[in-house]
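TICKET: design request
STATUS: open
ATTACHED STRUCTURE:
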């Protein structure tokens, strides 16, 4: 069903898709060696391009033409091309984003704010990646999952919200940054959940939402936690019997209910932040519908475990 809110996202996505193609052609022409390094990531990034129009929705929410935010959306897409790779890759994305924004006509104070936000999100991404290195599977916790989401997706959406605010009147930038951080973390949780195969018994690959896994460890007794750790180490081997047992453990009623409750709690916090912001009606509805989409995803079917 097409609504004014979904139409806003769809329209901006189409405009962004064309602008990103032009930006990538410029990189290929002027920086061929760098272009060769980011080509694969750029192709992959197109699958999530609708997520990069967040700045345009924020600009519309602040009562201005969302097309003003197109350079910000392109910069965000360029940043994401490399952000999830290693630390040099994250720096590469930041340089591409700033290169794209450099010729944009805007007040110096606005552009200074943009570059500061890009630096903030990039250092956050690098720090988050470094913190993850060497972390054991058994160290998975709710706190660690949320820290990762806030450090990567949360930092990126916080940046886009703040940059959009600088582009308008620059008021309430801290409030929009806080909302963007939680909104981004929820969008990552949504993506993790949408990719899950925990509830697909016959699926050859086991893809577990990190937050669900964290709640499994949190709800487990000592024996179950040890079993979880052992099974997770066996997952790369693709043993179907291993997958079946692990799926059962992940779908225990306590784990699933705790996971669903946590998603509702985070959704409620994000909605409260959105309610506290001054927004035009259609962009508010677009943001709210995207938040609500996470709760609309089906939860894994709970499965009773005997003797655990």
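STATUS: resolved
RESOLUTION: sequence designed for all positions
ATTACHED SEQUENCE:
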């Amino acid at each position: 069903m097409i609504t004014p809110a979904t139409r806003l996202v769809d329209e901006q996505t189409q405009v962004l898709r064309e602008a990103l193609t032009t930006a990538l052609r410029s990189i290929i022409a002027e920086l061929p060696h760098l272009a060769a390094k980011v080509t694969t990531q750029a192709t992959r990034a197109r699958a999530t391009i609708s997520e990069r129009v967040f700045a345009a929705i924020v600009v519309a929410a602040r009562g201005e033409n969302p097309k003003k935010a197109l350079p910000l959306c392109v910069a965000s897409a360029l940043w994401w091309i490399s952000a999830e790779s290693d630390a040099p890759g994250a720096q590469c994305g930041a340089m591409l984003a700033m290169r794209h924004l450099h010729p944009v006509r805007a007040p110096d104070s606005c552009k200074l704010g943009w570059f500061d936000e890009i630096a903030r999100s990039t250092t956050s991404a690098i720090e988050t990646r470094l913190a993850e290195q060497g972390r054991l599977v058994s160290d998975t916790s709710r706190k660690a999952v949320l820290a990762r989401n806030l450090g990567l997706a949360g930092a990126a959406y916080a940046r886009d919200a703040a940059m959009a605010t600088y582009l308008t009147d620059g008021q309430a930038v801290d409030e929009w940054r806080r909302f963007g951080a939680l909104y981004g973390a929820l969008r990552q949780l949504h993506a993790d959940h949408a990719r899950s195969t925990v509830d697909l018994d016959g699926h050859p690959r086991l893809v577990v939402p990190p937050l669900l896994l964290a709640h499994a460890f949190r709800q487990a007794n000592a024996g179950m936690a040890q079993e979880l750790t052992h099974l997770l180490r066996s997952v790369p081997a693709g043993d179907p019997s291993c997958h079946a047992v692990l799926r059962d453990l992940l779908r225990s009623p306590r784990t699933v209910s705790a996971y669903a409750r946590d998603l509702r709690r985070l959704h409620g916090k994000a909605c409260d932040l959105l309610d506290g912001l001054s927004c035009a009606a259609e962009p508010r509805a677009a943001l709210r519908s995207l938040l609500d989409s996470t709760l609309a995803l089906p939860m894994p079917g709970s499965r009773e475990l005997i003797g655990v």
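CLOSING REMARK: Residues 25 and 31 are 10 Å apart (CA to CA). The chain has a mean pLDDT of 87.
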